[in-house]
Design brief:
The complex is a heterodimer of chains A (94) and B (482). Chain A is mainly alpha-helical. Chain A has a domain of 62 residues. In chain A, 74% of the residues lie in helices and 0% in strands. Chain A is built from four helices and no strands. With 482 residues, chain B is of the alpha/beta class. Chain B has two domains: 281 residues, no CATH class; 168 residues, Rossmann fold. Helix content of chain B is 59%, strand content 6%. Chain B has a six-stranded parallel sheet. In chain B, α7 runs antiparallel to α8, α8 runs antiparallel to α9 and α14 crosses α20. Chain B is elongated. The termini of chain B are far apart. Classes of the chains: A mainly alpha (94), B alpha/beta (482). The interface between A and B is large, with 83 and 124 residues. Chain B: Belongs to the PNT beta subunit family. Chain B: This is NAD(P) transhydrogenase subunit beta. Chain B: Keywords: Cell inner membrane, Cell membrane, Membrane, NAD, NADP, Translocase, Transmembrane, Transmembrane helix.
Chain lengths: 94, 482
């Protein structure tokens, strides 16, 4: 993909992000932060590429370290979000 | 296409289905955030996020010749166990520290990926025929590494301040604005220098290392002068940075999932910072400049004039609560510190059974991060439809019989509306003075709120001060209600 296409996706995504985030209810702002944390660890893709193609040993180990860090975030972020969201309950009807 | 704007992913020749898979994963991330528009849809949203991540990881593994699958498996397993254990064990009051710690990991991971790409650009398909890293990729790498490093060191300081490893008092270096701006300018200058440098091969170019070092230092310098009261803004801001770091690496890899995610997270953090600033009536620039709370701490020792106030007992409070028709509870962080949220919900249950209408009013800065108080109440089984935001409930105080303030202070201080010299002037506050009665639970009359200012509400005619530990006082009230 060329730079301009990537840039177009990026700019559009910024707008999508702006409107989607404003629609998040303030009561869920903490889970929002936890889940954005988890999804920003999609950077694991870069770490996987670095560790997969063993062109350089240093790059491979840097990549593996990146995989560990991103995995902590992915599993931790989604799990803690799930834990929080499970606590939000509606009033019981009597 | 101009050769200048050629991007590395051309060389990597990602198959079309993989590009579509990354796009799908980006869309699933959008849906994950979209789900958070209501608690009912939020859990489905979280699942979409997990599926999106799974798709991204599997696609990457399938489209690259994996020589190191066992190592990668171990790395994921190791990280997964650590992350999962932390997520299970963390106390909800410690959520801000956890989020700060997670931000630091994203930042560091971005730095590691950028470094790996810098040392082994061939694996990322970002080299030209002569073995030089492409100009655009150099800029992306340098910026990605710099933002990642700032996120990392900044988040470490934010974590230390929130976790109490470091005092929340701002540390003010002389000439810090000049140092900070100079370092930022240096990072940008070095990035430009690196981009056009003839030293562009794998691992070449001292500028890259210099950028990294400067970025680690600036992250540290940016956060140390920021006081504890401004930490919600800082945590949101670092959230934003971690997104931009991911986006920068997404540009390098030409990866749609990373770019969409980076933009989403970047926007999310920026909007949360804005909401927090607005809730404290502080400009973003003044938060970043730091120093808030430094003066307040110094005036704390000054003798304050003694003014008359009414003190009540748990029995008085219980009696009047039973008589009330509408009660609005205003919880603040002090309630969470005293671990009073569970017994508070018990009190509300008893009152509801007696036919009293109970609502909770939450100020955006009630906790230590955006939405923190809502999570703490949800944990104590408070139904979310009894919990209201500042602008939705503020008009209802005029009809309320009792405003029940527990562990909050600055968010009910009328000085924010009237006293132009007050450090919290202009901050939106609850109109508790309009309620028929105000109960104010506070440990003692000494010690003011986080911003270190006196509060008129203590001395109003309709105010009854309940001086005790929040948890003990509410327990007493519950006993007296039965």
């Amino acid at each position: 993909m060329d730079f301009i296409s990537i840039l177009s996706i990026f700019v559009m995504a910024c707008f999508v992000g702006y409107y989607v985030v404003w629609s998040v209810t303030p009561a869920l702002h903490t889970p929002l932060m936890a889940v954005t944390n988890a999804i920003s660890s999609v950077i694991i893709v870069g770490a996987l590429i670095a560790s997969a193609e063993a062109g350089s040993m240093v790059a491979k180990w840097l990549g593996l370290a990146g995989v560990v860090l991103a995995s902590i975030n992915i599993f931790g972020g989604f799990a803690v979000t799930e834990r929080m969201l499970a606590m939000y309950k509606k009033k019981e009807k009597k | 296409m101009l050769p200048l704007l050629a991007s590395g992913a051309d060389a990597a020749a990602t198959p079309a289905w993989a590009m579509l898979a990354y796009l799908a994963s980006g869309v699933l991330f959008i849906l994950a955030l979209r789900g958070l528009s209501s608690p009912q849809t939020s859990r489905a949203g979280n699942r979409y996020g997990m599926i999106g991540m799974l798709i991204a990881v599997v696609t990457t593994l399938v489209t690259h010749s994996i020589a190191t699958l066992p190592e990668i498996g171990i790395a994921i397993l190791l990280g997964g166990i650590i992350g999962f254990t932390i997520a299970r064990r963390i106390a909800m009051t410690d959520m801000p520290q956890l989020v700060a710690a997670f931000h630091s990991l994203v930042g560091l991971a971005a730095v590691l990926v950028a470094l790996a790409a810098f040392l082994d650009p061939g694996a990322f398909g970002i080299v030209d025929a002569a073995g030089q890293i492409l100009l655009v990729s150099r800029v992306e790498l340098a910026l990605g590494a710099a933002i990642g490093a700032i996120t990392f060191s900044g988040s470490v300081i934010a974590f230390a301040k929130l976790n109490g490893n470091m005092s929340g008092t701002p540390i003010l270096l002389p000439a810090r604005h000049i140092i900070n701006l100079g370092t930022l300018a240096a990072i940008l200058g070095l990035t430009a220098l690196y981009a056009v440098s003839p030293m562009g091969g794998a691992g070449e170019g001292w500028m890259f290392w210099a950028i990294l070092a400067a970025a680690f230092i600036i992250g540290f310098l940016l956060i140390i002068p920021i006081g504890g009261a401004d930490m919600p803004v800082v945590v949101s801001m670092l959230n934003s940075y971690s997104g931009w770091a991911a986006a920068a690496m997404g540009f390098t890899l030409g990866n749609t999932a990373m770019i969409i995610t980076g933009a989403l997270v970047g926007a999310s953090g920026a909007i949360l910072s804005y909401i927090m600033c607005k809730a404290m009536n502080r400009s973003f620039i003044s938060v970043i400049a730091g120093g808030f709370g430094a003066e307040a701490a110094s005036t704390d020792g000054a003798p304050r004039e003694q003014r008359p106030y009414k003190q009540g007992s748990a029995a008085d409070a219980a009696f009047m609560l039973e008589q009330a028709e509408r009660v609005i509870i205003i919880p603040g962080y002090g309630m969470a510190v005293a671990q009073a949220q569970h017994v508070l919900r018990e009190m509300a249950d008893v009152l509801k059974e007696k036919g009293v209408e109970v609502k909770y009013a939450i100020h955006p800065v009630a906790g230590r991060m955006p939405g923190h108080m809502n999570v703490l109440l949800a944990e104590a089984n408070v139904p979310y439809d009894e919990v209201f935001e500042l602008e939705d409930i503020n008009s209802e105080f005029a009809q309320a019989d009792v405003a029940f303030i527990i562990g909050a202070n600055d968010v009910v201080n009328p000085a924010a509306k009237t006293d132009k010299t007050s450090p919290i002037y202009g901050m939106p506050v609850f109109d508790v003075d309009k309620a028929k009665q105000v109960f104010f639970i506070k440990r003692s009359m000494g010690g003011a709120g986080y911003a270190g200012v006196d509060n008129e509400v203590f001395y109003m005619d309709q105010t009854m001060m309940l001086l005790s530990d929040a948890k003990k006082m509410v327990e007493e009230i519950v006993k007296n209600l039965d």
